[in-house]
Please model this.
Amino acid sequence: MPLAESDRRTSLPRAEVRTTVELTVDDLTVPTTMCTANVSLGGMFVVMAVPRPVGSQARFRMYLPSGEEVTGLATVVWIRTRTVSLQQPSGAGFQFNRLQGQSRSLLAELINSILEEKWRTEVQREERSQARPPVWADGTAMVAGMELLDPERPPVRETKAKIA
Model:
């Protein structure tokens, strides 16, 4: 029985990662090349036009942007049979059963770097949204291009004057 929408994701940090993954599902001998939408240390969502049934087992090889590979075994724990939006394509949620070699630490590094970059971007966006516009010496806000109309009023980039 497929998991409910609210039960699909683990509480582990998840990062949007579009990368190639080769899956050899159940008794198939030839791997199928697909693309991930996101990954966590507990699993991955793989974009598939026709998702494999819940319970399907797969050996996988994920090619990280760094050129390194993550390999292991996973099980389909939930499926989305149709594309809802660009952010919610059809596919299958795989839970990792076993990660081989250095796969866990490679995934952790990738997820941490993506989430850190996302956090930095959000902080920068927040800082920009709180930035104050340049002001004239009398404290009134300067409108872009106004300095061309009134060259006698030099702009002051940093001032302690009150903004009206």
